[in-house]
Amino acid sequence: MPEPQIRKSAILTETIFHEGGPAPKTPLRRASCMTVIANPFAGRYVEDIQGFMEDLKPLGAQMAQDLIDALGGDPASIQGYGKGAIVGTNGELEHGALWHVPGGYAMREKIADSMAIVPSTKKLGAPGTRLDVPITHTNAAYVRSHFDAMEVGLSDAPKADEILLVLVMTTGSRIHARVGGLAAEDIKGEDGLR
User: Fold this and answer.
1) What distance in Å separates the CA atoms of residue 135 and residue 80, rounded to the nearest whole number?
2) Are strands 80-87 and 120-124 parallel, antiparallel or unpaired?
3) What is the pLDDT of residue 46?
4) Which tens digit of pLDDT belongs to each residue from 20-49?
5) In the CATH hierarchy, which fold is given to the domain comprising 6-16+28-166?
6) 102 preceded by cis ω (within 30°)?
7) With helix as H, strand as E and coil as C, how does the chain read?
8) For the chain, which residues make up each domain, given as ranges?
9) Which InterPro entries match (predicted)?
10) Regions of the chain with pLDDT less than 50
């Protein structure tokens, strides 16, 4: 397969100081990295598309590093992550699924305590489509305080023959998280769940 053709990329960072209650000692930081690529399968059905996952791996690694850098450069500070894709209207949903391995494993390789599966979402859409990317704790999917989402999108992407690939990372739980469940400090780190 050919190397991914990148049209543009963007990084969005947020610093959340409070959600109406008392300000926490440390604000929550979260960021998304979005890259718009040409969809090599747009406009036609192709049976064997798996090879493109291998081609996307360097891009996934670069996007993961860019996110870590945007959040201060320390992989140990990353506590939450997620991924997603918006496929342009000349593609199919399965083209977005090609991002599962290169996007998810790229983040897990760069974050030491990352046993949890990387949550994901994908959809078809036109330029300006928004996507809520789910977020969970990096080491234990059942940590309820880290269940979150980040809305992402670009005004001019994806065009019909493009895919918008997304990675998201956070530095902590939701601000004011207080609905119980497994606490981050109680993670056993045995199976990616608890």
Assistant:
1) 6
2) parallel
3) 96
4) 989 889 999 999 999 999 999 999 999 999
5) 60s Ribosomal Protein L30; Chain: A; (3.30.1330)
6) no
7) CCCCCEEEEEEEEEEECCCCCCCCCCCEEEEEEEEEEECCCCCCCCCCCCHHHHHHHHHHHHHHHHHHHHCCCCHHHCCEEEEEEEECCCCCHHHHHCCHHHHHHHHHHHCCCCCCCCCEEEEECCCCCCEEEEEEECCCCCCHHHCEEEEECECCECCCCEEEEEEEEECCCCCCCCCCCCCHHHCCCCCCCC
8) 6-16+28-166
9) AA_synth_put (IPR009569), BB2672 (IPR035936)
10) none
Tokens of 189: 């780190």
Give me the pLDDT at residue 1, please.
Answer: 61
60 phi and psi angles, rounded to 5 deg: -60, -45
Is 0.90 surpassed by the pTM of this model? yes
Predicted local distance difference test score (pLDDT) of residue 8: 98
What lies within 8 Å, CB to CB, of 125 at 6+ separation is 86, 87, 88, 89, 131, 158
Q: Are 106 and 64 in contact (CB under 8 A)?
A: yes
pLDDT of residue 29: 97
Q: How far apart are CA 166 and CA 101, in angstroms?
A: 13
